[in-house]
Amino acid sequence: MHETPINTESVIINQQSFGLFVAVTGILSITLLLWRLFLDPSGSTVELIDFFDIGICAVFFWDFLRKLFTAKSKLKYLVTWGPIDLLASVPAIWFASSPIIHTLKWPHVFRIVQGIRAIKAIRAILLAVHSNKRSTIVVLGFLIAEIAVIGSCFSVLHFESQDPTANITNAADVLWWSIVTMSTVGYGDYYPVTVGGRFTAALLMFCGIGLFAMLAGVFADTLRSATIDIAKKTKK
């Protein structure tokens, strides 16, 4: 009985691709946290940033677990980059609400968190220099989706807040609306009423259609490649 050899090159490529995704996510995180410093803590925009930060931290925590389980020396990872990766996965809202952190002066701790995430992003970029075309397309697709959702949420929340008849009034509403719109489901429970909000919605719909079309193409190409490989092995 022959065991199927593990394609180490493919594993490395996938790790590099995910590393690139984490890197750009880290840059987005730093940008959002810097913007948060200049906003009213009680505003809807800060609430929306905190929602996105929790999602970003989930990506960071998954990256921490992935690196921990795939590390050749788990002890070495835990005493080198492990603590930095783990701290980067702690939501900023926890630092803002923790009484212990407030006694240590919240803005200073906030800058430390930004620095940690910047180090994580730079490191991930350095580890993701090379990747294959298929993985790059998938990663870029998810990055575009990520940027489109974040940008559209802030844009629609800004436009709709200027209209008293709008039904998208808070961070939770606009986040749900963006997911429903990008997936082209369109429940209709929340919808923009301003010109700017509708224009943003149209752009988000096109991004969603393009993303799903790209994923379908990549999936079809993967099946085609697998079929060709099976046919070659059968002939041999």
What report would you give on this structure?
This protein is mainly α and 236 residues long. The protein folds into 2 domains: 1-130, Up-down Bundle (Four Helix Bundle (Hemerythrin (Met), subunit A)), CATH 1.20.120; 132-236, Helix Hairpins (Orthogonal Bundle). It has helices spanning 8-36, 44-70, 74-79, 82-88, 92-97, 99-103, 106-127, 133-160, 171-182, 195-235. Helix 2 (44-70) packs antiparallel against helix 4, helix 4 (82-88) crosses helix 7 (106-127) and helix 8 runs antiparallel to helix 10 (195-235). It starts with 7 loop residues before the first helix and ends with a helix. Mean pLDDT is 76; it is low at 1-13 and 100-108.
Structural class by helix and strand composition: mainly alpha
CATH topology of the largest domain: Four Helix Bundle (Hemerythrin (Met), subunit A)
H/E topology pattern: HHHHHHHHHH
Shape: flat
Q: What is the fold's blueprint, element by element?
A:
Elements: H1 8-36, H2 44-70, H3 74-79, H4 82-88, H5 92-97, H6 99-103, H7 106-127, H8 133-160, H9 171-182, H10 195-235
Helix pairs in contact: 1-2, 1-7, 1-8, 2-4, 2-8, 4-7, 8-9, 8-10
Question: Which descriptors apply to this entry?
Answer:
2 domains, flat, mainly alpha, 236 residues
Summarize the structure.
The chain is mostly helical and 236 residues long. It is built from 10 helices and no strands.
